[in-house]
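Researcher: Let's try something more involved. This one mixes different molecule types, so please make sure each is placed in the same coordinate frame as the others.
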Amino acid sequence: MAQGSSCWGCFQSLIDIHLNLATVLPLIDIKYWQCVADFKLKDLEGYPDKSITVGLYEGMARTEEDIHLLKLMRAKCKILISFGSCSCFGGIPGLANFSTLEECLEVKFRNNKTVKDGEVPTENLPKIAPVVVPNSTIVDFEIYLPGCPPTSKLILTALTALLTGKEIELPPHTVCHYCNRERKETPITEILRPFEGIADPDRCLLEQGYICVGSATWGLCEGQCVNHGATCRGCFGPPPPITTDQGAAAISMFGSMAPLEPEVLTEKVLDPLGTFWRFTYPTSHLGGIRIKREEVKTK
Amino acid sequence: MTTVEKKEVQAKKEWEPQIVAFCCNWCSYAGADLAGTSRIQYPPNARIIRVNCTGRISPEFILASLEMGADGVLVSGCHPGDCHYSSGNLKLRARLTIMKMAIEQAGINPDRIRLQWASASEAQIFADGVTTIVEQVRALGPLRREWK
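Model: All components are placed in one shared frame. Result:
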């Protein structure tokens, strides 16, 4: 199990399978897991190729070390799982593609509001890639398990299936399939920000005017957010085949339900790229154009 | 278009804007047909794709065309209120508005996308629309030049 640039949330979710760990752990032999077992990178480098049965890669690969680790995992593992939305689609760290690397360094280090005379650290640090590229363009994965994080139930299903040698069977439905709210097929009359008004707990959030991308999102979460009153932000990415453009599908749905005047839309939808492509920007069409632009620059 | 302008177009052999034009079956495609039969002159850069209704156009189509090398996209449909399917063009207008904003955020000039309404009898409006987008995109240069 390896971690690239990410928040460790996916592995946290793995640990959250709680008592089931007692059944899973005796069946596995951990070969490498930076935060849990004391193996170093050189241990992983020392293993023979394809000697590890299952590998999980969490996070995207932004630094040279991440890219090395990802390639190393591919070489050592028979089955490599792209674990979590960052690894599958670029996820939240993929939003860094909104800005250039210089702009990121400027905000984070040089002009950080909480630091005086900030400078970019250079010692003992791996180089940062100029742009976030999807992991799937660096190596091939056997399995994609999206989610931010993948739910504990999903992880348990996947791990049990792998341990028993069965196929992982995942339902292909979107979040709407699991949503208990009622749709009355009425068009949106007014777009609301999440903090505006009081939402009817029994009606479709999108119909009420709250931007919910559940219709374009794979419902492996079983509609947790929408059933608890929050709009879907799309963290599980597009439904299978997961290569489609989630944001485009979400806008398509949103446009069908809100045939409003352009002025109203521009006033109320403030950050369309961050709203509809929050988790899948690097793998989307627009993200592809962004990456190509950066590639041309570095050539 | 005058003959002088025409020569200018022919002189630039290196790069010509490539425009993907989505036309709805009921108005603009017929309008484009009429533009042809009425011998109206307009630039040949637009590759017309017929869709049953502009409401059928998913943002995916437009974004995919841009990613695959189109320099601009023209969407031409029925006038608001005239849609054969009552409101397909209004849905497209909403999608396109949001998409233009997203495209701008992603660093692409939104002038590369144009939405126009042209009915089956408005061949001249269709031809003018094509000329406008071609000129707009020509002024912006190839999409790939922005990458440099």
